[in-house]
Each structure stands twice: as structure tokens, then as C-alpha cells.
Write a structure and sequence with these properties.
heterotrimer; A mainly alpha; B mainly alpha; C mainly alpha; A: mainly alpha; ADP-ribosylglycohydrolase fold; 18 helices; globular; disordered C terminus; C: ADP-ribosylglycohydrolase fold; ADP-ribosylglycohydrolase family protein (chain C); Ribosyl_crysJ1_sf (chain C)
């Protein structure tokens, strides 16, 4: 893959991720049946819409993104400023901008999950220790927000899932020093990286998701130094994939079953395996995967972003996603040109310096 | 050869290999096979009883041969299957002395009827649901319909009902046959994965059942689509240990004559073997019971998925010679008749 | 009959309290960590270490799980009445006077109580936040099974009344009904452990049906489907205690969401074929929200097995450390049941 093609695919992934976040935002916190009834008129929602009153996303206009993309954007810009190298320190500094930078502060105020929030407080020294910090096992930091940002690690290791997993660990540690959270981040990063490989089909995707979940967990155990408390990813990934095979052609049943058994909630053991199941049900097509994820509701932004990043580079350009992105571009205060320029430069660097496209 | 032609040849050759390799292990139990052979992964010398019946290394049995002879009239008339051609193919097959003695029970009944010497009415004929006829004899030839409809699952399903409905005129045998055909057809789609093959099998089973409800006999048996999903679940969970996968599938799903065993088992092997053709055949061959049929059906699917490039040319030469086939030519002929492969 | 009913009631109360107390030592820990810290499985009432989620001072003290139900039951016995919304609230108010337990209360209960006591609630009740789908309903609803021994349907009705003030969402409620129904069923003759499981599932569907229109819709997994999954795992690993423990904990989870802890409880029940001590030990050593899971199992299996299996020193230790009189409570429930008051 030459630099031009690589940078085009990388930009497509970023646009898909932003579009996914925006598309899913109105559905945050709702269940699939509720979404179908109240937003979809008995069917899947396919257009950018407005959240119903009382819903989490109701205060935001169509096209607004959540902290999921905002954080990913800050991380990506931060790493690109240094040739795409990922370090924990740079990750921490980038995420802190959610709190300190006036343009990004609304994401901190309106959306940010408690785990990342606490992580930022630790980073800027404002965290007040509680007795829960004495517990030598960690059941608090098992949510999916690290996984929802880990696509950045995948993007910056295109075609190299092993390196993406290692970088996902680094990226997660400042806020999620927890093997279950890191396991989820590893899955997202690995799939994103692998989506740049030719011949990366759904079978390989399933196998890689399992491997990344296990490897990420082991690496996370060593990095975090204490065992996590909670359900784990590999068994849930198997459940999700088997449900995807059974109900691929019945989206209503698929979403209900995934919701009921695996879950679309904030735990890494819910959102990440369900995202994998949806990508497989969508046959690796990003537009469809995002549509399914958004219509799943609950932690929809995380699920949709993970799903989009896992297959946007290998999917053909999706018209609906590109349309949603144009609304994002109009609504949100991100600097797109420097970002595209950074990705172009990075792609040239990769083509010159790394031989990653072997399968 | 083009990509598509190589895939068609792959389907034909792998099905034939599965049938002929599996012929030697047929009817044996897993334990006996393990004791006698360890793990069968090559053509082995047939035992005395088989030799006495005229079997030799590389010879296919009823499974592949009936599919082969079903294809000949289509090739000669340069068209897809219809009822007349289905009958012609079946009767021509029955004229071959090599295979005449190994027709399955359901097939024999139909042949006798077509030849004007119907068997005396059995209790089965009087039953509303003759559940003894829910066998895999449809599935063993329906993979051929997948090859004739590369990438077009719905056409493969319709052709299967036409071809197999002749001998296996009940909803669940046809459901199973359509699963194999649909998965084989799916193997030709661009960018397809082995998970897609399994899902296509589930779709084929559901559609085959639904489309055969109106004109074919009802029977009582398990759901083919749900058992395919169950077998695939087992296979996926044991990808790192094919022998263990085989044991579990054989124990839970079964691999015998009945459609609700052998067709789901095939998909279980495909899931465990990640769609790899020879691995999937070995699992079927070593599982015992109706090994040649299961291996034949598996071979149509994974052979088309992997193409002839993953199969040994020595095996092609052996099969052609012993059976007087020309599989390469057949593949080219099928390719000429098949329409354009759909985009998705 | 009276003796048997009393023995089962006392068994349920003692086992629920014991499960809670044993579990406060392991709550919030990972199972592999517990194994290495304790060199094996926790099987007794131990002194909590200083680094857990609990800050109970002594072995044998229960936490919020059992205490909420205890004080609610006390109110019902004093009023000699079936539960009503007002009595449920009074039970909570009485419990709120005990800081040794209220310090543990879960997020949903705290939110609900502050609202009920007229203090400001900073959360908008109309917000569709899934974090309310916790197991705080399930942990007290087992008591309603004891007030309706052998009558799962009435137990479900009362579970709904008891839990609506603090857990007005279908997920928490359905989980509570599962425990109440199974506990009630445990008193029926000719009940096997699979019957307890199917009673739980019936309780869920009945609970959902009865509470429709009185709850706010919420996003989250299905208690019933997760329960089926947990039971499948439990049945598969009946011959291997350790595998069952890890598989249920890893696949289903045993955390504070109602679609984890309650399913896990039934999975444990299946794995242990309803044996009381084995089930409590598995729940306690699964860590995570161990005290809730074990407490809920205690109601069901204490009723099913009676009080004979529990270690003899448990009764006095639990009573003395908590200021309870479980024997008197069992006798009290026995009396109101016999009189047909409830």
C-alpha cells in the first residue's frame, strides 16, 4: 500500500469514527426497542436525528460529537506532532486538554465518564484519595472508555496489530491501569490496525479479536500490577460472534440478543465484544456496522466508534457516513486541515520507514 | 484457469477427495479409527471387506458420483437443472456398475419408482411424516448446485430444491441440502470469510425449509439452521485443537446418515478448521460414521473457498484416473454455464 | 409442620445474613487474589482486612444487603401487615438510623432514600441512566419470599412493592422478583434445585408483567437471558468447583448490576446443585459483589435446605455482632404466616 492510499484510508477511518460518534449520540442511554419505537418509527434509524427529551444527548444538535471523538482527536493530534509515537506522558497531556482547554471543556463537563475524570484528576494532582484506593483489586476502572480511544493506537500502527496492542496498553495506562479495560483497548487497537491489511476478512477479525483480548489482558495485568474485578472479554466475544452468525439477517433480533446476553453498556466486557459481533454481522462494512451500533443504544458512542474504526479502512467509502461527517465538520470546533496534513505526513513516514503490509 | 474456474475445480476435487478418502473410514467408530490409524490424513489402503466390494484407492462412492452424474446432463444441454435433467442424471448414474451397489436407501426408492418398478408400499409410504427419509442424500449432491450458481445463494437454493427434491422430497432434508448449496455458492463472493460460509449455510437452511414447505412432505426433525449454529459454536471454540473439536462435534451433533447430524457437523468442521480445505476434510474423515458423505459435503464448500490451488495435483490425477473423470474440464464447462457472479 | 416452617425460615434468615457477612470480607476483590491471600477458599466468618470495600470492624457483621431487609421485616412484624409502600419506606427510614450499615449502601438506594427523606436529589429522575440497574432490589427481596412461603406469586407482588421506591426500573425489579419467587418456591414440597431456577425465571416474567407501566425504561442486559447463560455454565461445570467459579464470574460477571449478580447466583445454585454451604462458598469466593450474591443465595437455599448445614457458631456470632435476633424473627414470620396475615 503506497503512502497515498494509506493516508486516504487513514483519513477515511477518522471521518468514519467522527461520523459514528455523532450518529450514535442521540441514542445514548436508550435501549434498542425504545430506539426503534421512539426514533425509528418501528425500523432502524438511518439518518442523523435529534435525541428525545430526557435522553442524555437531548441538549445537543445533530452533528455534535461526544467526548469519545473529542478525546481521540486530541490524542491523535498530540501523537502526530511527534511522528506518531505514543507515550503515556503525551497521552496524559492530550487528555488533560479536555479539562483545561476552553474549546474542549464542554466535553469534560457534559460527557466525560467517571473513570477518565478520576484519571485526569490524578494527572493534574487534584485527586483526593479515598479508602477505595487501598483495595488491592480494581473493579472500578473496567469501563470501555479506554477502548473507545484506542483506535488511535491502531491507526498509528497501520497493518501491525501486535504493535497496536502494545501502544494500546501505553495509551490506556494514564486513566485505565486495569487489565479488563486494557483488554478492550487491545481489541479495538488490533482490529483497527489490521483493517489496513489486505485479505483481512471476518474470520481473521474474529480470531484477532480473541487473541488481542487475551494478550491485552496479560499485558494489562503486568502493567497495572493488580488484578481487575469483573467479567472478561474472550467468552463474551465468542458469545457475540455466535449471535452474529445466527441473526445476521434479522437486525432487530440481533440487537436484542446482543443487548440481552452480551450487553451494550459501559463495561469493556459489554461494549467491545458487542462491537465485534456487530462488525461481523455487518460483514465488515463500516456503514452498516455503525448503523447497527447506534441503534443498539446504551453506550452507543463507544460501540459505534470501535466498530467504525475496526473496518472503515477496509470498507468502501460509505455515503451515509460521509454525509454524517459533513454535519460533524459543520458543527464541531475541530481543526481538520492540520489533522489531514499530519496524517499525510505520517503515511509518508510509514511508507518510507516501515514494512508492515505482510499477512 | 481463471479464479472462478479454480474455485469450481477446488469444490469438485475436494468433494471427490473427501468422498474417496472417507470411504475407507466409513461406518467405523472414532475409537477404532484412532486405534488402527491414529489420524487419517492421506489415502489409505482399503480393508479386505471393502476390496471385496470392488473398492480401490481414489474411487469415489455414491456421494460424489451422483453429484457428478447429475452435472453431466446439465453440461451436455448447456443449461441449469430442471426436473427432466435431474431424472436423467439420476438414471444415468444408476447405470454405472461402479456405483450401482452403493445407493442410499432414499435414492434407491426413487430410482425404482422412476424405472417403473416401484418397491412394494412400505409403512413409510403411508405415513404423513416419514422421518426415516430425513437423510443427507440431498446434501451430498447439492454442493454441485452451489458450483453452478457461484455467488448466487438464492439461485443455488432453488436449483437444489429442483435437483434434490426428486429423491429427498421432504422439508428438512431439503433444508439441509440448501445449506450446503448456499454455503458453496457463497464461497465465490469477493472478500468472503469462513464465517460468511457458515452464515450462508444458516441462511440456506432457513430458506430451503421455507421454500419447500408448500410442495414437499412434512417431517419431524431438528432445525438444521439452529444445529448449524450450534456446531459452528463448538467449532469456533476449539480452533486450536482440531482433534478435540472433532470429538466434541461428533459427540454433541453426531455425524451419521441423518440430515440433522451430518450437515451441521460439516459446518462445525469448517468453523474449527477456519475454512481450510484439507483440515476440514481430515476432521470429517476421522470422525467415523458417515465419513464419506460429510467429507464430500464439506469438500464442496471449503474446496470452492480455498480453490484448487490448495489441493494436491497428485490427488487430481488419482481421482481422474481411477474414476475416469476429467474434473478440470468439468470445472471449465460449469463455469461456462454459470452466470455472472453477483457483486455482493 | 410448624417446626419445619420455622427451621426453613430460620435457615433462610441465617444463611442470608451469613452470606452477607462472609461476603463483606471478599467484596471488591478478584477471585484469584482471594485464593492467594487466603491460601484457599474462604469458608467461615472472618475478620475483614483493612483494604477492602467494607469497613466493618468485626467478623460476623452484615452490610447493607441483609440489614435493609432485616429492618423492613421488623416493621412488617410490628405492624402485623403485608408490605405496603408506606411500610417499605418506613423500613428504609429505620435502617437509615444505623450508620454501621448505611455507609455501604449502593448508589441506587442512597439516591432513592435521600429523595424519600425529602433531601435534594441532584439527579434528574427522568434521565435515562443505566447506572440504576443495580442489584439493591434483589438483595432485600428474598425476605418477601419468606413472608409468602410456598407462594411465589404473592412473593413477587410484594417484591415489587418493596423495591419500587428505590429501584423503579424493569431490570432491578425483575431480578428482585427472581430471588423472591425462588425463595418462596423453596418452601414447596417436592422441589428440586432445577425447580428453584425455573421459579426464578417465572418470577422474572411475572415481575415484568406486573410492574409494566410503573417503571421507567432503562438500557441494560436481560436478567433472564443472563440467568440462562449462567445456569448453562453452572450445569456444565457441576463436577468442577473451581472451573464453575471462574467461568461464571468471567462470562456472566458477579458485579453490582442486577443482570450480573442475580444471574450469577442462579448459576452458582446450578453448579452446586443447591447445596447451601457450597453455594455460599462459591459466591463469597467469586469476589466482586460477593456479599450481595451470597446473601441472595442464602435466602433461597437456606429456605430450601433449612438451618442444619450452617456452622453452629454462625448464629450467635451474627446475632451478637449485629444486635439481631434471627430466631425471634423467624418465629415472628412463622406466626404471621400461620395467622394468614400476609
Amino acid at each position: 500500500m503506497n503512502a497515498l492510499d494509506l493516508s486516504a484510508r487513514m483519513k477515511r477511518t477518522v471521518r468514519a469514527v467522527a461520523a459514528a460518534d455523532a450518529f450514535a449520540l442521540p441514542m445514548l442511554g436508550m435501549g434498542p426497542e425504545q430506539i426503534r419505537r421512539d426514533l425509528g418509527d418501528g425500523d432502524l434509524v438511518r439518518r442523523l436525528c435529534k435525541a428525545p427529551p430526557g435522553a442524555v444527548g437531548s441538549a445537543f444538535p445533530p452533528g455534535a460529537v461526544s467526548d469519545v471523538f473529542a478525546a481521540g482527536y486530541l490524542l491523535l493530534r498530540g501523537f502526530l506532532s511527534d511522528g506518531g509515537h505514543i507515550t503515556a506522558a503525551r497521552a496524559g497531556r492530550a487528555l488533560l486538554r479536555l479539562k483545561t482547554d476552553a474549546a474542549f471543556r464542554p466535553y469534560f463537563d457534559d460527557f466525560l465518564d467517571p473513570v477518565t475524570r478520576e484519571g485526569l484528576e490524578r494527572l493534574d494532582g487534584s485527586y483526593v484519595s479515598t479508602r477505595f484506593d487501598l483495595v488491592p483489586c480494581d473493579g472500578r476502572r473496567i469501563n470501555c472508555s479506554a477502548a473507545a480511544r484506542a483506535w488511535v493506537a491502531g491507526l498509528l500502527n497501520p497493518g501491525d496489530p501486535e504493535a497496536a496492542i502494545r501502544d494500546a496498553v501505553t495509551l490506556s495506562m494514564p486513566t485505565h491501569p486495569n487489565a479488563i479495560a486494557i483488554s478492550g483497548a487491545a481489541v479495538s487497537a488490533a482490529l483497527t490496525a489490521a483493517s489496513f491489511l489486505p485479505g483481512f476478512d471476518c474470520g481473521r477479525l474474529y480470531e484477532l479479536a480473541l487473541k488481542a483480548a487475551r494478550d491485552g489482558y496479560e499485558l494489562g495485568l503486568s502493567a497495572a500490577g493488580m488484578p481487575p474485578v469483573g467479567a472478561k472479554l474472550p467468552q463474551r466475544i465468542e458469545l457475540a460472534v455466535n449471535l452474529a452468525l445466527r441473526y445476521r439477517r434479522d437486525p432487530e433480533k440481533l440487537l436484542q440478543e446482543l443487548n440481552d446476553v452480551v450487553g451494550f453498556g459501559a463495561y469493556a466486557s459489554e461494549a467491545v465484544p458487542s462491537a465485534v459481533g456487530l462488525v461481523i454481522a455487518a460483514g465488515g462494512r463500516a456503514g452498516e456496522a455503525v448503523r447497527l451500533a447506534a441503534n443498539a443504544g446504551n453506550c452507543a458512542c463507544c460501540t459505534a466508534v470501535i466498530a467504525a474504526a475496526a473496518c472503515a479502512a477496509s470498507s468502501p467509502v460509505d455515503e451515509a457516513l460521509e454525509e454524517h461527517f459533513e454535519k460533524v465538520r459543520a458543527a464541531a470546533p475541530f481543526d481538520w486541515e492540520p489533522l489531514w496534513a499530519g496524517l499525510t505526513a505520517f503515511a509518508e513516514l510509514v511508507e518510507g520507514g516501515r514494512d508492515v503490509f505482510t499477512l | 484457469m481463471t479464479d472462478r474456474q479454480e474455485k469450481i475445480l477446488g469444490g469438485l476435487l475436494a468433494a471427490a477427495i473427501g468422498d474417496s478418502m472417507g470411504a475407507v473410514t466409513e461406518h467405523a467408530s472414532r475409537r477404532k479409527l484412532k486405534k488402527d490409524y491414529g489420524w487419517v490424513d492421506t489415502f489409505i489402503e482399503p480393508h479386505e471387506a471393502l476390496k471385496a466390494k470392488g473398492h480401490q484407492i481414489g474411487l469415489v462412492t455414491d456421494d460424489f458420483s451422483v453429484a457428478y452424474y447429475s452435472a453431466l446432463p446439465l453440461i451436455e444441454h448447456r443449461q441449469k437443472v430442471d426436473r427432466e435433467l435431474a431424472i436423467e442424471g439420476l438414471l444415468r448414474w444408476n447405470e454405472q456398475p461402479l456405483y450401482a451397489q452403493c445407493a442410499g436407501p432414499t435414492t434407491i426408492t426413487t430410482i425404482n419408482r422412476l424405472r417403473g418398478r416401484p418397491s412394494p408400499p412400505s409403512r413409510g409410504d403411508l405415513l404423513l411424516c416419514d422421518n426415516s427419509r430425513v437423510t443427507n442424500g440431498g446434501g451430498m449432491k447439492s454442493g454441485m448446485m452451489g458450483l453452478f450458481n457461484p455467488g448466487d445463494l438464492d439461485a443455488a437454493i432453488d436449483d437444489t430444491i429442483t435437483l434434490c427434491g426428486l429423491t429427498h422430497d421432504n422439508t428438512i432434508a431439503l433444508s439441509a441440502a440448501c445449506a450446503i448449496a448456499a454455503a458453496t455458492a457463497k464461497a465465490f463472493c469477493p472478500g468472503v470469510s469462513y464465517l460468511d460460509l457458515i452464515e450462508a449455510g444458516i441462511y440456506g437452511a432457513q430458506e430451503g425449509y421455507a421454500r419447500s414447505l408448500e410442495h414437499f412432505r412434512p417431517v419431524a426433525a431438528s432445525s438444521i439452521s439452529k444445529r448449524i449454529a450450534l456446531a459452528a459454536e463448538i467449532g469456533l471454540a476449539h480452533q486450536d485443537d482440531l482433534a478435540a473439536a472433532m470429538e466434541e462435534i461428533a459427540d454433541v451433533i453426531g455425524c451419521g446418515l441423518f440430515a440433522h447430524e451430518s450437515i451441521p457437523a460439516a459446518f462445525g468442521y469448517i468453523a474449527a478448521a477456519r475454512g481450510q480445505v484439507m483440515d476440514s476434510l481430515y476432521m470429517a474423515i476421522n470422525a467415523g460414521d458417515d465419513t464419506d458423505t460429510v467429507a464430500c459435503m464439506t469438500g464442496f464448500i471449503t474446496g470452492a473457498y480455498c480453490s484448487s490451488r490448495d489441493l494436491s495435483p497428485r490427488y487430481l490425477a488419482l481421482i481422474d484416473e481411477v474414476n475416469h473423470f476429467d474434473l478440470r474440464d468439468m470445472a471449465l464447462q460449469i463455469d461456462a454455464i454459470a452466470g455472472n457472479t453477483p457483486e455482493t | 409442620m410448624h417446626n419445619e416452617l420455622y427451621a426453613r425460615l430460620h435457615g433462610a434468615l441465617l444463611a442470608a445474613a451469613a452470606g452477607d457477612a462472609m461476603g463483606t470480607v471478599s467484596e471488591g476483590f478478584a477471585p484469584e487474589f482471594l485464593r492467594s491471600r487466603y491460601g484457599g477458599y474462604i469458608r467461615d466468618l472472618l475478620e475483614p482486612t483493612g483494604d477492602g470495600l467494607t469497613i466493618n470492624a468485626h467478623a460476623g457483621m452484615v452490610s447493607d444487603d441483609f440489614s435493609v431487609a432485616y429492618y423492613t421485616a421488623q416493621v412488617l412484624l410490628e405492624h402485623r401487615s403485608r408490605i405496603t409502600t408506606a411500610l417499605a419506606v418506613e423500613g428504609l427510614r429505620r435502617w437509615w438510623q444505623h450508620p454501621e450499615y448505611t455507609c455501604y449502601c449502593g448508589p441506587s438506594t442512597k439516591r432513592g432514600i435521600l429523595k424519600l427523606l425529602g433531601e435534594a436529589d441532584d439527579g434528574d429522575p427522568a434521565r435515562l441512566s443505566p447506572t440504576l440497574a443495580t442489584n439493591g432490589g434483589g438483595m432485600k427481596a428474598g425476605m418477601m419470599g419468606l413472608f409468602h412461603p410456598g407462594d411465589p406469586e404473592k412473593a413477587v407482588e410484594d417484591a415489587i412493592t418493596m423495591c419500587l421506591p428505590t429501584h423503579s426500573n424493569p431490570i432491578s425489579l425483575s431480578a428482585a422478583c427472581a430471588i423472591a419467587a425462588a425463595a418462596a418456591r423453596a418452601f414447596c414440597p417436592n422441589t428440586g434445585y432445577l425447580d428453584l431456577i425455573s421459579a426464578g425465571l417465572c418470577g422474572i416474567s411475572q415481575g415484568l408483567e406486573q410492574s409494566a407501566g410503573r417503571t421507567s425504561e432503562i438500557a441494560g442486559s436481560s436478567v433472564a437471558r443472563r440467568l440462562e447463560l449462567a445456569v448453562e455454565l453452572g450445569l456444565r461445570y457441576q463436577g468442577d468447583f473451581e472451573q464453575a467459579l471462574f467461568q461464571i464470574g468471567d462470562t456472566v460477571g458477579a458485579g453490582l448490576y442486577a443482570y450480573e449478580a442475580i444471574p450469577a447466583a442462579f448459576g452458582i445454585l446450578a453448579a452446586c446443585k443447591g447445596r447451601l454451604m457450597d453455594s455460599l462458598v462459591m459466591a463469597v469466593n467469586m469476589g466482586s459483589d460477593a456479599d450481595s450474591t451470597a446473601c441472595m443465595l442464602g435466602y433461597v437455599l437456606g429456605a430450601w435446605n433449612g438451618d442444619a448445614e450452617l456452622p453452629p457458631h454462625f448464629s450467635d456470632l451474627i446475632d451478637s455482632q449485629n444486635g439481631f435476633d434471627l430466631k425471634a424473627m423467624a418465629a415472628g414470620i412463622c406466626a404471621v404466616v400461620k395467622e394468614g396475615i400476609c
